[in-house]
From TrEMBL:
Record feature DNA-binding region, as residue ranges: 97-116
The protein's name in its UniProt record: TetR family transcriptional regulator
Domain HTH tetR-type, chain residue ranges per copy: 75-134
Protein's UniProt keywords contain Transmembrane helix: no
Database matches in Pfam families: TetR_C_43, TetR_N
GO MF terms, alphabetically ordered: DNA-binding transcription factor activity; transcription cis-regulatory region binding
Top-rank taxon, per record: Bacteria
Region (Disordered): 22-72
InterPro entries, sorted: Homeodomain-like_sf (IPR009057), HTH-type_TetR-like_transc_reg (IPR050109), HTH_TetR (IPR001647), Tet_transcr_reg_TetR-rel_C_sf (IPR036271), TetR_SbtR-like_C (IPR049445)
Keywords per UniProt: DNA-binding, Transcription, Transcription regulation
UniProt-listed PANTHER family: HTH-TYPE TRANSCRIPTIONAL REGULATOR BETI, HTH-TYPE TRANSCRIPTIONAL REGULATOR RUTR
Amino acid sequence: MCRRVNPGGRWVWRRSREVFSGVGNNRGRSPRLDRRQSETGTPSPDRPQRSEEDAVSTATAPIRRKVTRPRADAVRNRERIVTAAREMFVEYGPDVPLDEVARRAGVGNATVYRNFPDREALVREVVCSVMDRTAEAAERALAETGDAFAALERFVHTAADERISALCPMISGAFDRNHPDLEASRERVERLVDEVMARARAMGRLRPDVGVGDLLIVVAQLSRPPAGTDCGRGDRFVHRHLQLFLDGLRAPARSALPGSAVTVEELRMS
């Protein structure tokens, strides 16, 4: 269809499609119409509409988050720091300079502080690690042999090797003894020793008048070198004396013990 317009008194024929641009296509649609359709919810003819099923599936789809794992070298550095700190805490106590720990571990000071922001965090990690390794040694012995008394022996000797008697007392004074990590490691050790002793007692291998507290106290005392002696030299006698103690735990008992068995609760209160 054509139409005449008269600009300046001259007749010009134009196609109505050119005059009314957009009629029958999308290029000339009024923005006001689009806005009114969006307000009323009327779908636009040229836009594909999402179904309700698509909307629900998109809303309920799980969001996948990328889990970052520490690099292997970062894990090794952390382990080296903990090992070096354990050695130096045993030799010099918990106040050893942290730059000396970094030097022995073969890492920079920044690496130490990136893993452990303060001294308390490092001491806590060392103590938790030795308790966890001691518990794991007893668990492996129990799984391998099924012998509860053998697992008890493994626990006692590993505790001496890990220097629990020297490291655990460091968690006192200014340090938070009730930190959740420490509580978890401590309770794991106590539960394990209690279970192993109960099983050894039920098998007739452990004398009945000994408690968990008795065992932990003696291990701590025998693993600590005598006053005035070199720490390294005292190591020669530790396992010998611990084995004497373990032989005294075997049933049947040769003599009656004075008093009653020491429980974990009594040990914590002492």
